[in-house]
Amino acid sequence: MKKLLMYLKKHIVFSIILLVFIILGLSFSLYKLLKHDVKLDLKGDNSVTLSVGNDYQDSGLIITDNGKEVKKEDIKIEEKSNVETDKLGEYKVTYKVTYRGKSYDIERIIKVVDDVNPEITTNVEEIVRDYCTKKDTTNLEYTANDNYDGDITDKVTKEEIEDNYKLSVSDSSNNETVKNILIKYSEKPQDSIVLNGNATTYITVGASYNEPGAYIKDGCGAKLNDEVVISGNVDTNTAGDYIVTYTSKNNNSLLKTRKVIVYVPKTTTNNGGGKTLYLTFDDGPGIYTQQVLDTLAKYNVKATFFVTNQFPKYVYLIGSEHNAGHAVGVHTYTHAWNVYDSVENYLDDFNKMNSVVEKYTGSRTRIFRFPGGSSNTVSKKHSAGVVTKIANRMTNDGYVYFDWDVSSGDASNASSTQIYNNVINGAKRCSECVILMHDIKKNTVNVLDQMLSTLTSSGYNFGTLNTSSPTAHQRIAN
Above pLDDT 90, what percent of the chain? Predict the structure, then answer.
């Protein structure tokens, strides 16, 4: 009996313990069944960096309950955002989720940044620099634009480093762009021999020839300490063409020649029936003026030069014209048509040129020729009637203007043959001819020797214009 009681007691205790575990297990399962473990997880990163100006599309979020994704129809989501994608700054996207009567919050940080470098645009990719002057012959122009700041050209720094221009610019977010522009030097110019005086020199028979010599310069114009060797003989007692040669003692590749023409001066006679020709040259002095003077000297012919300041390098030749016995008159300082905008414009230009004439001749001239002649039609487009007004004003002030009887046609780019025929045939039609030519026209210069040979052989007289000479006035057409 005692053993039976012990057995029952033991089994009752075991049953009680087992029942407790069963009850605890059922309670835990029921707890898990009734509990809601809700979690909000953002899709993508919790903090997003966005380049300014780009569109922002939020990735959304996932809601789970006890690890299982909740259906959309079971929840309510309120999304709030203050993101401005075109403005730098830190913004928030906030989600408020309502589920089973409870609210849950989560947020994402959006950082709008400028991480794009500015752009530098240039008009060239390399700069050409003159070897001699060390100055740029290419004009460098550039602009700088930034995706956020806009035009930031004024912030560009330009720095020369070795053989490059370094262009640098930074925007307000310290994004920097550097662009290098290559500096390329022009080729070194060759050394050369420079003649003192003219390449063609006229000497009358019996006169002495004084060798003007020459010197050697480097390609940049600096005079070199190099001896010039001169060879060639000029016999001033015998008419003819002589060549003087100049070479470098240290450089056999350098060579220059001068032509010396020894001639018998031609004299004019009155066999031309008393006809007088007034040769006039407009628009110079220029590159060919000295050659014109030499050819005139060869035939002992005097002419009239209506001068300009178009080519300042040669304006000193006005003095040479005057010293050789030629007449000098004003043509215009600029030879620009705007001198006809008004009487005042014309007078300002005229007086400016007459001051240049005075500088080289010692006195002001009282003769002049209108740009285009008094019959030009261009002036009407600038100021109707202006030539008439100028002519009256200048005449009242004691000045005389000259047109022409014969035009060589060189202003219209006539050939040398056409120029020759126009002058020779035109001279036959008048007893006192004012002949229009231009000392800046190569075709005129090339045919002048032949022209003067024919005219002097024909016995014409030659004169220079003054205030008492035939004016050859044409009809004013303004």
Answer: 78
